[in-house]
Amino acid sequence: MTHTTYRKDYQPFSHRITSVDLDFVLDPENTLVRSCLQVEKQSKAATNDLVLNASELTFISLAINGKPVNSSRYTLTDTTLTIHAVPPQCRIDITNSFSPARNTILSGIYMSRGAFMSQCESEGFRRITYWPDRPDVMSVFSVTIHARKDLYPVLLSNGNLVDSGDEPDGMHYAVWKDPFKKPSYLFALVAGDLKDRSEKFTLKNGKEVLLQIWTEERNYERSAHALESLKKAIRWDEERFGLELDLDRFMIVATDDFNFGAMENKGLNIFNSRYVMASPETATDQDYLNIESVVGHEYFHNWTGDRVTLRDWFQLTLKEGLTVFRDQEFSMDMAPDASTRAVLRIQDVRSLRSRQFPEDAGPMAHPIRPDSYEEINNFYTMTVYEKGAEVIRMLQTILGKEGFRKGMDLYIKRHDGNAVTCDDFLSAMSDANRTDLQQFALWYSQAGTPRVAISTQFDAQSHTYTVQASQMIPGTPGQPAKEPMLIPISIGLIDQKGVDLPLTLAGESACQDTTRTLLLTEESMSWTFINIPDRPYISIGRGFSAPVVFDYAYTRDELAFLAKNDSDAFNRAEAMERLCTLALNRMIDEIELGQEPHTEQFLLNAFETILKDESLSPMFRAVALELPSEQDLGQSRAMINPTAIHVARQRLIREIGDYFSQDLAATVAKNKTGGPYSHDAADSGKRMLKNLCMSYWLAGGSSKALLDARSQFDSADNLTDKLAALTMIVNSKSPAKIDVLNAAIKVWANDPLLVNKWITVQTTAVCHEGEMPILERIQQLSQYPAVFSLENPNSVYAMVLSFMTSNPAEFHREDGSGYQYWYDMVTKLDTINPHVASRIARVLNNWRRYDPERAAKMHEALVAVSSIPTLSPHVREVVMKALNNP
Questions:
Q1: Dist CA 346 CA 867 (whole Å)
Q2: Listed residues 177, 193, 209: the one ending a domain
Q3: Positive or negative, the Cα torsion across 391, 122, 348, 383?
Q4: Nearest residue to 291 via CA among 265, 269, 319
Q5: What is the DSSP string of 273-330?
Q6: 130-165: per-residue pLDDT in tens?
Q7: Do the Cβ atoms of 710 and 743 come closer than 8 Å?
Q8: Among this protein's residues, is 600 annotated catalytic?
Q9: Is 239 exposed, middle or buried (0-12, 13-18, 19+ CB in 10 A)?
Q10: DSSP code of residue 815
Q11: Are 8 and 133 part of one and the same domain?
């Protein structure tokens, strides 16, 4: 039976735990924990009972004020320890044990490659000791760790190291004290044979701090980029938001076994190794960018998440949406030029549309601040994170950068050291700027992606141009009707020569701004611009000013004009993407009608314009010339037919490759990089454009392109080029694919991150007629423990999730074999790691969008999983909502 938790039912905890001393004796099979809690009853608490959470713990003893108590004084269950008649102020000592080695859920303290690691967000601390495992209980932690020195020479926890030394029988100890109170989800412990890359760093206030990146010794040489990224993040937060590092040291630890990307534990961040390790031979250009971004994200949590934390888990976007926004701003500020900055924005929005928009339209649609949950781990979602970041960005758009900074300053000043809510954040923004944000707050409470219909009218006599906008927010589970929201719409008007016009609204004095942000606050509104000499082209939602769908009936010619002339780089790429989608949807329609699909000349002309425009950076041209993915094309269809989508897209890729064969070859030659590898924007951009053009060229059937790709694979001095060449060859019909795959794994076999990339190349590959279905290849690969492990999340995501989400034509084969594989993986993973299983389960969330034959098979698989009586709450919530919510 599932239990639903509601935001409206929040009550403060009955007691304060002002401080806790934790003493660990580490052993993989049986770790001993002694906890000493200083407890005070809340003045308004109605109960004298203290209820502590627990999971998978072995209770040993309990004492109050130094005196052991018998079992009549407490009630023990599998999930709680309730201590009765607790004095108003007292010390409580608890001893318990648990087994890290048997912890396959990777929540709490667990083993990873012979080291102890921890992950406590959201409810993992209860797997370590008995505790009120909720974010509004904040305490000062002191931690003593004992372990065998030969096996675990490095002992780490939060805060500052205050003592360490040797003990009898080959043991040693370390004592860590965190001077700042924190909730239990920010606790961390690491013990293992690790090597640190250290550097002293001077803050703007003159204080010297120690920065450390801890890895296995084999990975030491690959940790330099992460350290440089950390230094950049610290300096950026000082300069952009006036927030300084508050500890004497800041540490990052890398592990191969981790459910998340990284975790912001106070002063001791723990990272999935893919967001720490980088060298030219083992990390792509995108990996370098991701490392910088994730290191920044987790460091920025030091203030937005750690120093100011959450009252309850419904407020998750308060720290995650805000911090994603901060890491996006950090990455864009690190960009060397406007073009690179624009590309980062384009990529962020494409990810949002591809992954969050479907979530908003699916059975688990929820506001960025949900009102209820059955399993909190199911709400670490694109909605809470990425849509949450867009909501914060809208605030900055509305208030301006200066106004947003004023609001941030007040938020930190008011709430430092406290557990607060989204409403507290909005109040600080409102008060600092003397602005009413009540309507804006609907972004926190209403689910769904708003649609904004735009219509325009030009009056040649009065030289005015009127823009009308009407908003519609679709119904979502539990929210059939919505109120109008505050939506910022940034627009520009472009004359026939491609020049931006100054925008002055009726009733205003002359204005020279060429981009204006209009605030849509009602269901329908209109604005009239004056002094518009001729009918202009309208550029809507510049910079993606709001996470909405703008509906405007652009013609092909208008889109082609914007793709060539829009001064807003985001909308220029957007126009090209719309042109591609328009052309591809027409081809898909033809295939579904049994007709021969054809490529229209207007798209080839637009493609040629951007390909040959040397005034555009290579990086921008690469993102503008990339076709929409099969997943994104599916979202643009009333009914999804994966086969027709795949055939149309592959047909267009081949025709582009054939039509522009000479131009693509010339672009490849022109964008080869010389000299030592650099992941800077200039060289990265050249590689992006070169590899995209080579992939088109090769798909067009050029034997010269195949030779060039093989040569690049053999001679590349960097993973970006080697992996791109490998992918192109594997996606081709060439029998050389077997040879290059074998050559790659011989070199990469001992590196888990590279093995995962090697797997993903195959799971996401194009399957040509006469070739083995991709699923059969996956089932072969999964038999090799050196290649695949169900117990390692990275391995599961590389093989299972990538196949199901990034290869729709193969996963959705008409025989239903993909859905049987989904059932097998969900049910197996649910017994090992329900968190990972629930991510796989979500793949079928939007099953109703598909053609009836596929939808019926998906429904059958969902029903089969739902009938399992031992199903975890993580998976049951996902599956039941998929079945019950339209």
A1: 42
A2: 193
A3: negative
A4: 269
A5: GGGT---TTT--HHHHHHHHHHHHHHHHTTTBTTTBEESSGGGHHHHHHHHHHHHHHH
A6: 999 999 999 999 999 999 999 999 999 999 999 999
A7: no
A8: no
A9: exposed
A10: T
A11: yes
Rounded to two decimals, the pTM is: 0.98
Local structure of residue 508 (DSSP, 8 states): S
pLDDT at 482 over 90: yes
Selected catalytic residue, list 121, 216, 298, 577: 298
Percent of the chain with pLDDT over 90: 99
Q: Specify whether 204 is located in the same domain as 187.
A: no
User: 42 and 12, same structural domain?
Assistant: yes
118-133: b (≥16 Cβ within 10 Å) or e:
bbbbbbbbbbbbbbbb
Do 258 and 183 sit in the same domain of this protein? no
Query: Are residues 83 and 178 both part of a single domain?
Result: yes
Average of pLDDT values for 32-52? Answer: 94
450 with 548: CB under 8 angstroms?
yes
The answer to whether residues 89 and 116 touch, using CB atoms and an 8 Å cutoff, is no
How confident is residue 1, by pLDDT bands cut at 50, 70 and 90? low
- What does the CA dihedral 302, 303, 306, 310 come to, rounded to 10 degrees? -150
Range of the domain at 284: 200-307
Report the pLDDT averaged over residues 707-727.
99
Per the CB < 8 A criterion, the answer to whether 692 and 626 are in contact is: yes
Pair of tokens at residue 168:
């009898």
pLDDT in tens, 335-351: 999 999 999 999 999 99
Of 491, 644, 630, 512, give the one whose Cα is nearest residue 568: 491
**In the predicted structure, residue 93 carries a pLDDT above the cut 80:** yes
Residues pairing with 76 in the sheet: 81
Identity of residue 784 = Y
Domains: count for the chain: 4
Look at phi and psi of residue 214 and say left if phi exceeds 0, alpha if psi is from -120 to 50, else beta.
Answer: beta
Find the mean pLDDT for residues 635-648.
98
Q: What is the mean pLDDT of the chain?
A: 98
H or E segment and range at residue 806: helix 802-806
Residues 148 and 79 in one domain: yes
- pLDDT confidence tier of residue 45, bands split at 50, 70 and 90: confident
Q: In the structure encoding, which two tokens stand for residue 711, read together? A: 């040569």
Say if residue 121's pLDDT is above 80. yes
- Cis amide bond preceding 184, omega within 30: no
Confidence at residue 43, expressed as pLDDT on a 0 to 100 scale:
83
The last residue of a domain, from among 423, 445, 467: 445
Specify the residue for token string 């064969």.
661
Residue 261 pLDDT grade (very low, low, confident, very high; cuts 50, 70, 90)? very high
| Contact between residue 210 and residue 177 where contact means Cβ atoms under 8 Å apart | no
Q: Is 271 helix (H, G, I), strand (E, B) or coil?
A: strand
Return the CATH number at 237.
Answer: 3.30.2010.30
Q: What token pair was written down for 494?
A: 């472009």
The CATH number given to whatever domain includes residue 436 is 1.10.390.10
